[in-house]
Amino acid sequence: MRTFKLALAGSVASILMLGSAIAGEVVFRSPDDAMKQGISAFNGGYYELALPAFEALEPAKPQIARFYLARIYGDNEGAYTDHGKAFHLYKELADELQDIDPDDDDLAPIAAKSLTAISMYLRDGIPDAGIPADVETANRDLQRAALTFNDEDAQFELAKVYLRGEGPDMTVTGYDDPASKIENGRHWLSRLSQAGHPGAQAFLADLMWRGKFVEKNQAAALNLIDVAVANAPPSERVWIEDIYQNIFCNAGEGVRQQATGRVAEWHSRYGRRPALEDSKDGLDTLAVEPVRTCANGELVRPMSVFASAPKSEPQPQPQMMIGAPSPAPTQRSSLIPAGASSIQVTGTSPIAAPSPVVGLTPNGATAQ
What we know:
Helix 3 (47-57) runs antiparallel to helix 4 (62-73). The chain contains 15 helices and six strands. By secondary structure, it is mainly alpha-helical. The strands form three sheets. The chain has a two-stranded antiparallel sheet.
């Protein structure tokens, strides 16, 4: 079960004061003010307030404005969903920024995210908007975002595509090699998980828990998903905590005990402090904090609660699940802490023909 409350760390009042209404239009004092207010409204889900801010921002900072407008139109949970508009905005951005320097801190991320979004759309097409599927272009755009721009989210999407036996061709003696694609998908998940990418950690933990594509190791899965929750930014927490809840509630006492002894080591090796302020991605401290329970009524708790509780005292009973604090990242090892499997995952043998792995977006990120 799950209940939600909004933790509004900020300024609803300032959001509501986006500008002065003159003749039915919103007027901003400066482009920077429009951008600040637009991003604040976007993060809070106030799209009706974000739209005029980004429209006002477009003459001064067109790439940033169009990027956020595309995100609004591409949000299935919003009131302004229009995937055709979102696709065309992303396409304009990708075309305009095709020669951008990958080291451009302001525009390279927008180019990478736009290429990734185009790839997701083109994989199946958008029938309602008359946009046909184009898998070849989808593969090319995703690979460029992942490799040229070194975008972690694109690399994560590429890993999931490979695990489905899809993606850019990998040939052996002239024949497509699904096994190599699956191996490459495992490679990207391992690499990203070691680097602290919360989505990859959660996805890999789910695979490890069920022994799908990788060797089954439930204690390692519990440790890894615990780290993923701590690493997750506000916009990713819900689906990652969904996976945590499933693993935590189904973990037996023996699995929990194994995981408890390694909590600090896992967080030290694979923890990453989530960035709460990001002018490009629109992430801040506005978050949904779920209070979760297992089917038997047990509260879902981070593993740090078990690790820090004295053995002679009853286990504490916090009222909501919170991510365990992540120590400052140390030099990462290619090996998982002693006694656990390495994140450099190996496949089960033999590798059968891949069954679909759903989830090219957070709404479907759990492997099936």
